[in-house]
Each structure stands twice: as C-alpha cells, then as structure tokens.
Amino acid sequence: MTISPEKVWFDEDNLWVTISDGRTIGAPLAWFPRLLHAEKKAREDFDLSVHGIHWDSLDEDISIQGLLAGQGDQTHPKRDHAA
Length: 83
Known about the structure:
Elements: E1 5-10, E2 14-19, E3 24-28, H1 33-36, H2 40-43, E4 47-48, E5 52-55, E6 60-63, H3 64-68
Antiparallel strand pairs: 1-2, 2-3, 4-5, 5-6
Protein name: DUF2442 domain-containing protein
Pfam families: DUF2442 (PF10387)
Organism: Marinobacter subterrani
C-alpha cells in the first residue's frame, strides 16, 4: 500500500501533513530551510503526488517516507553557525 499525502498546512513553526492512512505528521519548518524562509504564498503553492509534496517555485520536494522516518531536508546540510 502506498501512503500518500492528502492535506498540507502550516502553523508558525511546523509543516503538517495528513496522509492517506489517517495519520497526521508534523515536522519543524527548521528542517526545511527553503520552506522556513519562504513567503506564505510560496509555501501554499505546492503539488501533491503519490510519494510526497513538491514546491516548484521553491525547488523543494518532501517525501512522505522521509517524514515518517523523521528526516528533514537532506539536500541542505545543517551548518554550524557557532564562530
């Protein structure tokens, strides 16, 4: 069975996704820098697919399997900002 996204929304700090098996997954926006720094209009301009969520204007893709595994954006390694 493929688990796919059905609904996506945001609060101040999180991305929320309802998936086809009825669960709701939340992930901190800090995991996804492109979404964190995007304007509300850009965040809301996404496409759902069988496997995840795609933001064309932000060049961002999030897989449901990655969310379920607790993985953030693997294409943007977290930087150590300590100097």
